[in-house]
């Protein structure tokens, strides 16, 4: 594909999709985000509405957030649902990772969330 995983394809036309949809490569034809595969993810998770996309690689789940909406994942209903997904990933031996522009962070379940460090004097 000759592009970074978190970059738009050169054939992507904002607002309309792939300019080469009918002849797109097999990699593109085979890819389905979790919203397309998981019936538990409702319309709120449609990438066009959520401004983020979920996909799975084994026990790892990845969230790609649209940098134009950098805090969307922290708002309702997404924040709580992402913690639930993190818990499920952790139970299966995996983890949930979030990418937004240059920011990369692991989202942990409420059970494993570490409290903020308090500076010592």
Amount of helix = 10-25%
Please count the beta strands (DSSP E, at least 2 residues each): 6
**pLDDT averaged over residues:** 86
Adjacency order of strands in the biggest sheet: 3-4-5-6
- CATH A-level architecture of the largest domain: 2-Layer Sandwich
Look at the structure and give the CATH class of the largest domain: Alpha Beta
Number of domains: 2
Q: What percent strand? A: 15-25%
Outline: globular
Distance between the termini: 51 Å
CATH topology of the largest domain: Transcription Regulator spoIIAA
Please state the structural category: alpha+beta
Protein name: Zinc/iron-chelating domain-containing protein
Organism: Rhizobium helianthi
Write the layout of secondary structure elements.
Layout: E1 12-13, E2 17-18, H1 26-30, H2 34-37, H3 47-50, E3 52-57, E4 60-65, H4 78-91, E5 96-100, E6 103-107
Parallel strand pairs: 4-5
Antiparallel strand pairs: 1-2, 3-4, 5-6
Keywords:
single chain, 121 residues, alpha+beta, Transcription Regulator spoIIAA, 2 domains, four-stranded mixed sheet, two-stranded antiparallel sheet, 4 helices, 22% helix, globular
Written description of the protein model:
The protein is α+β, with helices and mostly antiparallel strands. The chain folds into two domains: 31 residues, no CATH class; 90 residues, Transcription Regulator spoIIAA (2-Layer Sandwich), CATH 3.30.750. The chain is built from four helices and six strands, in the order E-E-H-H-H-E-E-H-E-E. It has a four-stranded mixed beta sheet with strand order 3-4-5-6. Strands 1-2 form a two-stranded antiparallel ribbon. Strand 3 and strand 4 form a beta hairpin. The longest helix has 14 residues. The protein is globular. It starts with 11 loop residues before the first strand and ends in a 14-residue tail after the last strand. The mean pLDDT is 86.
């Amino acid at each position: 594909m000759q592009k970074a995983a978190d970059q738009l394809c050169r054939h992507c036309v904002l607002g309309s999709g792939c300019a080469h949809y009918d002849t797109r490569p097999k990699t593109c034809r085979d890819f389905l985000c979790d919203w397309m595969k998981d019936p538990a993810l409702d319309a709120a998770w449609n990438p066009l509405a959520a401004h983020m996309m979920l996909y799975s690689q084994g026990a790892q789940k990845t969230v790609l957030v649209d940098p134009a909406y950098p805090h969307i994942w922290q708002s309702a209903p997404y924040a709580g649902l992402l913690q639930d997904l993190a818990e499920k990933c952790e139970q299966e031996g995996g983890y949930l990772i979030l990418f937004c522009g240059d920011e990369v962070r692991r989202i942990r379940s409420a059970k494993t969330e570490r409290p903020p460090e308090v500076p010592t004097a």
